[in-house]
């Protein structure tokens, strides 16, 4: 049982409410930084050593909070827990379509499930460990980031830097369904953009002079779809697509984006080569392909399973069973697991509806889920 007193789910929900009411779309650095300010002030007051890394490229800041040096932790490697404060929801979503509300077991609001509840629990667990003077086996590093929802372009380097010196990494992304499962493996994610240049002409009087970029795009779509191998865990998806101007004009331009998911690093490298090889020129058509693997695969291994068993034992002490799952979506855990650092993901709150208008958490699970996070931070 965790020594840290986490508090009641009712109290946690009330403080989490303030985080949800503070809208933080990824594209608004000032809004994300406003919530960073709130977390930073509370952590400094509790005694954390805080570093604020200024944002760049239009994104918000990163925040690193560390427990002070202690004789109990000696020279042990830290345990890192990392969450993001940005959401996919634009300003005004609360007022227009997704108001904060609590209905029975469910609490609703933009970003509450993905992943303000989980990031809040990580913040709260560290704050209470510091406030209560709880002894931990290892130093703790909390990392709060501003841009996970767009692939972590400015935070990846920092996440990997902190992970390299860690004994383990915890990711409080939303718990999975069914049963509030944590995550011991994730697919790798690739993103590509295809642009096609053809030759414009009149669709009636000069049809033979044209070279349709849309027809070429249709061929690309078929080739990419044929790369799907469900047995191997390889999937592709083409969307969005675009091309053409008017029905009577042979389209000179077209394009698409490609989403790639793979189960292992080898397939990621192979599929990246195959998709990039779609580029080329022939008979007036020029195809360019940009992109690559955005997140490496997160593969289950014995060290990760050992982390899971520790979390599972803590969950039983907190009164619930903690299943595990492999998930198709990526997270910042992909980066840390690919470095060989034991990583356990999906430790956030139960609920459903990530990126959907019915997004919600099962708020009575806040305290028991927080208790497991605190227990891991204390004992790893």
UniProtKB/TrEMBL annotation:
Q: Does the keyword Glycosyltransferase apply?
A: no
**One Pfam family of this protein, by short name?**
Peptidase_M20
Give the originating organism. Muricoccus nepalensis
User: Which keywords are on file for this protein?
Assistant: Hydrolase, Metal-binding
A GO molecular function term, named singly, is: metal ion binding
Q: Residue limits of the Peptidase M20 dimerisation domain?
A: 184-282
Show the segment(s) annotated as Disordered: 52-77
Please report the name of this protein according to its UniProt entry. M20 family peptidase
User: Active site: which residues?
Assistant: 86, 148
């Amino acid at each position: 049982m965790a020594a840290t007193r986490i508090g009641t789910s009712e109290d946690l929900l009330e403080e989490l409410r303030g985080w949800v009411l503070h809208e933080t779309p990824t594209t608004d650095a000032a809004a994300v930084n406003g919530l960073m300010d709130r977390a930073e002030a509370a952590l400094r007051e509790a005694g954390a050593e805080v570093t604020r890394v200024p944002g760049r490229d239009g994104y918000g800041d990163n925040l690193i909070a560390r427990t002070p040096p202690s004789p109990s932790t000696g020279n042990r490697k830290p345990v890192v827990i990392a969450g993001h404060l940005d959401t996919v929801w634009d300003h005004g979503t609360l007022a227009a379509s997704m108001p904060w509300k609590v209905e029975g077991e469910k609490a609703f609001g933009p970003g509450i499930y993905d992943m303000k509840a989980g990031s809040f629990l990580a913040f709260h667990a560290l704050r209470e460990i510091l406030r209560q003077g709880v002894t931990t086996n290892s130093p703790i590093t909390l990392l709060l980031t501003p841009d996970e929802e767009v692939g972590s372009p400015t935070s990846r380097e920092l996440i990997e830097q902190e992970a390299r010196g860690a004994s383990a990494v915890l990711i409080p992304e939303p718990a999975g369904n069914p049963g509030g499962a944590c995550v011991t493996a994730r697919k790798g994610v690739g993103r590509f953009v295809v642009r096609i240049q053809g030759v414009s002409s009149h669709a009636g009087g000069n049809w033979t002079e044209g070279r349709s970029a849309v027809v070429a795009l249709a061929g690309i779509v078929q080739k990419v779809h044929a790369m799907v191998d469900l047995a191997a865990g390889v999937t592709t998806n083409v969307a969005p697509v675009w091309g053409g101007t008017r029905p009577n004009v042979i389209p000179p331009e077209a394009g698409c984006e490609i989403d790639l998911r793979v189960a292992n690093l080898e397939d990621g490298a192979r599929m990246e080569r195959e998709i990039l090889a779609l580029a080329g020129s022939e008979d007036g058509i020029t195809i360019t392909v940009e992109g690559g693997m955005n997140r490496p695969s997160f593969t289950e291994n014995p060290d990760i399973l050992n982390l899971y068993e520790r979390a599972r034992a803590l969950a039983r002490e907190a009164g619930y069973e903690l299943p595990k799952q492999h998930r198709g979506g990526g997270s910042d855990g992909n980066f840390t697991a690919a470095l060989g650092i034991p990583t356990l993901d999906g430790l956030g709150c139960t609920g459903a509806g990530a990126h959907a208008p019915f997004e919600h958490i099962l708020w009575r699970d806040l305290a028991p889920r927080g208790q497991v996070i605190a227990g891991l931070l204390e004992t790893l």
